[in-house]
Amino acid sequence: MEDIEAIAVLQDPVRRRLYEYVAAQDHEVSRNEAAEGAGIQRTLAAFHLDKLVDAGLLETGSRRLSGRSGPGAGRPAKLYRRARAERQFSVPARDYRTAADLLAEVAEAARLDTELQAAARREGRAARAAAGPAGDLAGAKALLAARGYEPRTEGDVLRLVNCPFHVLSERHPALVCGMNLALLEGLIEGTEGLRARMDPRPGLCCVVVERSKNNER
């Protein structure tokens, strides 16, 4: 029921714009910034942001934006960020997560890493063929965004804010992260000067896509 309510909250176009803006940022967002990003007044933004918090789609924190402390530093501002909880919704209920967890457990026990990675690479190639070649880093970013990775550019690197396999990767990190790397290798295969590699960091996907140095793959 909570997931249904969360999805219902996003039916409002203003709330959806606010949620998408906050989720796309790599920092906590103030009410002023969110209002400007969504093109609405601050009071309206504050109302809808708190509705998104009530629905569990956003989380809040507070700090002084001036960076100062003590008397005269001003009151801490309320800041918003995307909630870390995952949402699922299907009618009637489907339990694909349990099935995926059991399959991963069996694959791990049977040491099917190589076979899984080969299948993931084929899937990546098929997805690339359907979408067309990435072409360059910007094209790779669009491909990854379409698959839910939420890529953000840091110089010559695409860091992936969202892992579509997050829960599964926490339970079976070696198996699932290896699969994820192979999938992205297949997705960008044939794109000159790009490579995918492992670079696990807290709160991010375990894989990055980057411009390869000296065309190394």
From TrEMBL:
CDD domains documented for this protein: HTH_ARSR (cd00090)
Lineage top rank: taxon: Bacteria
InterPro entries (alphabetical): ArsR-like_HTH (IPR011991), WH-like_DNA-bd_sf (IPR036388), WH_DNA-bd_sf (IPR036390)
Pfam family, one: HTH_20
Coiled coil: none
Protein name from the UniProt record: Transcriptional regulator
